[in-house]
Amino acid sequence: MLPTPAEEPPVAASDEPRSAPAADAAQWALDEGLRRALAVAVRAAADAARPLVGCGDGDAVDAAAVEALRTALAGAPADIRVVSGEGEKDDAPMLHPGERFGTGAGPALDLVVDPVDGTRLAASGRAGAMAILAVAPRGSFADLGPAFYLDKLVHAAPASGADAGLGLDLPVAENLARLAAAHGRPVSSLRVAVQTRPRNAAVAEAVTAAGAQVHGFEHGDIERVVHAVSTNGGLDLLLGIGGAPEGLLEAAIVRAHGGIMRARFAPQSDAESLRIADFLASDRASSVGAGLATATGLGLHDLCAASALVVIAPVTPCAVAPARAPSVIVDDAGRPDLVTAGLTAG
């Protein structure tokens, strides 16, 4: 029997797995039975949420998915520890950091999860809602502490394999010039995803001023990351501030596609700033947490230090067809119409 959440010590980041080559080994893989169990769990969450699409109650959508996930994950043949769940930011039903699942017999894994990413989309009957989780060997994911928001930069690796040298501390125009040069294309051909929020208005304006195209969107960070790192995606870059819990899921996807990602803390309130300051001063914080507080932020290896398995199951139609990879399972529940290839604005 695994410990209850109250008995489990706080999730703490560890530098050891990040410096150990074995944790970053590409050959790390889950056996077929465990992969199947995780896929079944995510499909169960999506199936439970789907009858509530259009109900107008996002918490009801989340609660149905959470209950289904809890039930399905209980029998997974592994020792699974939740590192990050989406619900705290939105005060919604969630799987809590430190909570444990599985039979305990099998690999020790860390879990980042969003039972329904896009609950408001599902509640209002719109496209873009999905159940999603990622698992990786214990200690692989960065500990984001109490952060709700991250400033993110995501793009595919240039064909040459060389790092284009983009940075969160660089002006938007400089980043676009470097990315265009790395791809051998004009800046005007670049399509940049920026979430339509007041906090990102200056980023969107800078993209336009530099001559690139802005792909604005209200919800759907994960869909946009998929298209920014996939070879057959419709975006070249994602910039701006978005949810922190989604950032770890996105890091797992970026790693699966060999892309590039940087992130840093971007608190959106005095209360969040104080929580992060307390976290950084605590014993729980590591060099990884401190790195997230710098102007340059952290790269992909620190956000997701090992190959992760990602499982996605759409609740409403999602533009995640380009996400499919050996370590990314996209389960359409026998409905191909739920998995689309092309993004739409908004």
Count of beta strands = 12
- Helical coverage, percent range: 25-40%
Strand content: 15-25%
The unreliable regions are: 1-27
Major sheet details: 6 strands, mixed
| Element string (H = helix, E = strand) | HHHEHEEHEEHEHEHEHEHHEHEE
Instruction: Write out the strand line-up for the largest beta sheet, numbering strands in chain order.
Output: 2-1-3-4-11-12
Notes on the structure:
This protein is α/β, with parallel strands linked by helices and 346 residues long. It is built from twelve helices and twelve strands. The chain has helices at 15-19, 32-49, 58-73, 87-90, 119-123, 172-183, 201-210, 221-229, 244-256, 270-280, 287-292, 300-303, and strands at residues 79-85, 100-101, 108-117, 130-137, 149-155, 191-195, 213-217, 237-243, 260-265, 298-299, 309-314, 328-330. The strands form two sheets. A six-stranded mixed sheet has the order 2-1-3-4-11-12. The radius of gyration is 19 Å and the shape is globular. Mean pLDDT is 89; it is low at 1-27.
Question: Topology, pairings included?
Answer:
Layout: H1 15-19, H2 32-49, H3 58-73, E1 79-85, H4 87-90, E2 100-101, E3 108-117, H5 119-123, E4 130-137, E5 149-155, H6 172-183, E6 191-195, H7 201-210, E7 213-217, H8 221-229, E8 237-243, H9 244-256, E9 260-265, H10 270-280, H11 287-292, E10 298-299, H12 300-303, E11 309-314, E12 328-330
Parallel strand pairs: 1-3, 6-7, 6-8, 11-12
Antiparallel strand pairs: 1-2, 3-4, 4-11, 5-8, 5-9, 9-10
